[in-house]
Design brief:
Layout (H helix, E strand, L loop, with lengths): L5 H9 L6 E4 L2 H8 L7 E4 L3 E5 L4 H11 L4 E4 L2 H12 L3 E5 L5 H7 L5 E5 L2 H6 L4 H21 L9 H14 L4 E2 L4 E4 L20 E6 L1 E3 L2 E2 L2 E6 L6 H19 L7 H14 L11 E3 L6 E5 L12 E4 L2 E4 L3 E4 L2 E5 L4 E3 L10
Helix pairs in contact: 7-8, 9-10
The protein binds zinc ion (2 copies).
Length: 356
Amino acid sequence: MDVAGRLPRLRERLEAAGCDALLVTNLANIRYLTGFTGSAAFLLVGQSTLFTTDGRYGDQSSEELGAAGVEAETAIGRRGEQIEALEKPAKGLRVGVEAENLTMALKEEFECVGSRLVPTAGVVEGLRRVKDAGELARIEAAADIADVALAQLKERLASGVTEAQFALELDFEMRQRGADGVSFETIVASGPNGALPHARPSDRLIEAGDVVVIDFGALVDGYHSDMTRTFSIGPPASAELVDVSDAVLVAQRAGVRALKPGVSCSEVDAACRDSLELAGYGSVFLHPTGHGVGLDIHEAPAVAAGSADILEEGVVVTVEPGAYLTGVGGVRIEDSLVITATGARALTKSTKDAIL
Ligand code: ZN
Ligand code: ZN
């Protein structure tokens, strides 16, 4: 990963963002720009770069910034000392702040930094949309771990396990296979629980005839994967869910086919939505089609109706249509894909055969 090349690219964006320097508070953005993986830091990027953190991270930050080849002044100390250090290089400057991340409390503390604070949105996130080869390798490694873990365990779904037990085993399997952690709390939603798009795994026993939604991912060196598969334990008890299952698969293929450079994210959303509407399930597709994936599990671009984001080569997005029938169950199918010169390549590859 070329971390050191990112600060110059950010500097080029400051003028358009209406500021002379950007005060980065979002930790994923700080990690992206410097390689720092700790839980507290500020980063001021203007003509020069100042990185501040507290005493817990003195050694770690100098190691990580050094390994990434990032040149920055550093100030290590208590919060007040960090803010004092930020005042000097920011003197007289319009200082951009990350409006979606900055708390009211922190904003008050920053009032003394620069001539004024300028709210900005998505400046670093915009850079993060296109992944470099090192980032893609990490997301792909995370996706591979999730694929192998599911293949290894999915027969267990038919062996009389609870949702919570299966989720635990899946998480354990991913860790065993080299994941640093899980991307987010694994979703295993069976029977009527499948109607809740973000159900929590419960003590419900998974039984023959159940349709089970499994949404999960692995974390590798800060990068996430995201995949959903829906399996039926033998023929589904609900005939309607057979129809829903076919419709969601067709919609997911339509969304994937729409992916290529130059296409707007709203068009990709429309491809899935139109397909499900045609099948009669438009009103029970309860969420946007997808999202970017990288250092955050949900990041730019938003694959949603009304999204002006345009796809380009190297962007990683999910396509995850679903349909949810209250009291009956649900179906969602999700892949993470990277946009290529001519289309998209799936990073998640598990079988979509619905019947276990
Ligand atoms: Zn997911
Ligand atoms: Zn997702």
